């Protein structure tokens, strides 16, 4: 296995490995911390008219409509908490992930191929725009040198949900669904074919890459989404069908993001 570099080819496979097929579906609960608090309702006093024959005070408390609370968003200090740990992801896949790596800035290296098709990879700095505030990329595998699974999770925070939604549409153009199935893209010295595009919408993009020149098909399964102020997703590389695994990993991230 080549040493891991901070480039898009980091999930390429050059060694044969055993396949573990167990996929454990793990439920999640939404946390109450790590998001901006909701403002509590307030009460004000209002001047009340005096009634003859009474000794009421000049004013009494009365409940008025409080201003709308600020929307809940994921804050930068909690970005790590929405991503699955090595132990959590390992349980989903039924294996032990001993090696990890991470980065706090998006990749800038170029992907070869038609522009729409080259966008179907880990989103680069140019795809994400300039409005994002916090970026996190986590990378897991069984060992540094050999593995049956390669897993990565990405989370990108924006100031508002509107900015995140706009960035998602820019990052994953819908036109790719019509023209990129079967297209070839190049990541440094590796060639990949976009073998399947399951969906590209305003908030979801799911596709599969097949690595060329492998005697046994080695695929990477991508699942990226937008929810609230977060653009997030995961990819899972393995032999066999990785859709159940990557879906569960991405569902777990989504469960920790407020509506």
TrEMBL record:
Pfam families assigned to the protein according to its UniProt record, in alphabetical order: PknH_C
InterPro entries: PknH-like_Extracell, PknH-like_Extracell_sf
Region (Disordered) residue spans: 51-70
Composition-biased stretches (Low complexity): 51-66
Residues in PknH-like extracellular domain copies: 74-255
Gene3D superfamilies, per the entry: PknH-like extracellular domain (3.40.1000.70)
Name by which UniProt lists this protein: PknH-like extracellular domain-containing protein
Protein's organism: Mycobacteroides abscessus subsp. bolletii 50594
Phylogenetic classification of the source organism: Bacteria, Bacillati, Actinomycetota, Actinomycetes, Mycobacteriales
């Amino acid at each position: 296995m080549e040493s891991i570099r901070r480039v898009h080819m980091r999930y390429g496979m050059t060694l044969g490995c055993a396949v573990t097929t167990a996929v454990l579906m793990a439920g999640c609960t939404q946390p109450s911390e790590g998001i901006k608090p909701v403002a509590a309702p307030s009460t004000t006093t209002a001047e009340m008219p005096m009634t003859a024959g009474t000794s009421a005070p000049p004013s009494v408390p009365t409940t008025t409509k409080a201003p709308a609370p600020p929307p809940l968003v994921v804050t930068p200090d909690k970005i790590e908490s929405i991503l699955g740990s090595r132990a959590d992801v390992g349980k989903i896949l039924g294996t032990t992930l001993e090696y990890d790596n991470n980065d706090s800035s998006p990749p800038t290296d170029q992907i070869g191929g038609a522009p729409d098709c080259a966008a179907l990879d880990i989103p680069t700095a140019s795809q994400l725009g300039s409005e994002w505030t916090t970026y996190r990329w986590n990378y897991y595998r069984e060992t540094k040198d050999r593995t049956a699974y390669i897993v990565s999770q990405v989370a990108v925070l924006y100031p508002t949900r509107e900015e995140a939604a706009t960035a998602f549409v820019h990052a994953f153009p819908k036109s790719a669904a019509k023209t990129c199935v079967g297209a070839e893209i190049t990541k440094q010295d590796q060639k990949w074919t976009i073998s399947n595009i399951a969906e590209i919408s305003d908030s979801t993009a799911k596709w599969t890459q097949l690595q060329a020149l492998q005697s046994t098909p080695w695929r990477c399964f991508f699942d990226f989404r937008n929810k609230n102020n977060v653009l997030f997703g995961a990819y899972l590389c393995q032999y066999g069908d990785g859709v159940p695994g990557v879906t569960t990993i991405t569902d777990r991230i989504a469960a920790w993001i407020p509506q």
